[in-house]
Amino acid sequence: MDWSRYWRSPDRPLEAMHAHFERHVYHRHSHETYSFGVTEDGYQAFRCRGGAHTSAAGMVIAFNPDDPHDGHAADELGFTYRIVHIGPELVSDVLADIAGRTAGLPLFGSPVVSDPVLARNLRGLHAALLGTAPALRRDELLTATVGAMVHRAASKGVRVPSVTGAVERARRRLEESFPDDIGADELAEAAGCSRFALYRGFRRAYGMAPSDYQRQLRLRAARRLLAGGGAIGDVAARTGFADQSHLTRWFIRCYGMTPGRFQRSG
Description:
Elements: E1 3-8, E2 14-21, E3 26-29, E4 34-48, E5 51-56, E6 60-63, E7 69-73, E8 79-86, H1 88-99, E9 112-113, H2 116-130, H3 135-153, H4 165-176, H5 184-191, H6 195-206, H7 210-227, H8 232-238, H9 244-255, H10 259-264
Antiparallel strand pairs: 1-2, 2-8, 3-7, 4-5, 4-6, 4-7, 4-8, 6-9
Helix pairs in contact: 1-3, 2-3, 4-5, 4-6, 4-7
């Protein structure tokens, strides 16, 4: 039986989920945040950065911002996991506090890490966020967890996608007008290349087709509006979804919960 619990900070880019999934399948999506998870039981399988990965009990998952990935149970028994989403600006603030100076954003080269120390730190932070720990304790655990993740699992440098001018122009067009019904010809014209060249270049740069990227932009905008208290039907209309049911279906497929559940988590 699938179940989930979600927590969202009211004033910082910090969220956490505890879930068990047997039947749910995540559609390919990405987050604006760093996403650090730990598998508690079972096996979860996913594709990320062009490869297939499996996280077993005790293993840690590390997604960089905008890392496209999917996810599902590797067998009929399902899997249980905890995951924390931390905005890049919050990660930067924590690392600057640790170093006593401005710090660059980290890059995690492997999406699956086997490290008992990191797994223990993530469990502690996650339990504090979903529990009744005071703010000071949450901040201490956040600092310790981010510091340990970077020290023990991060690579040097920041990933920069290979983006041509045409792909960048198409991305800007989508971001400026994501609620609009933009056709392939219109997008290719804005990019200044053929439809095929744009599709191929966009997938190479961002790991998904332009239509998937547009839907991702719509979902992210919907999350922001929902967090601000917007009515679900109104949010759906404002972000380019056909109706509330359309938004709900895609919200579940990409985030594992309904818009209403997400809204109540704050």
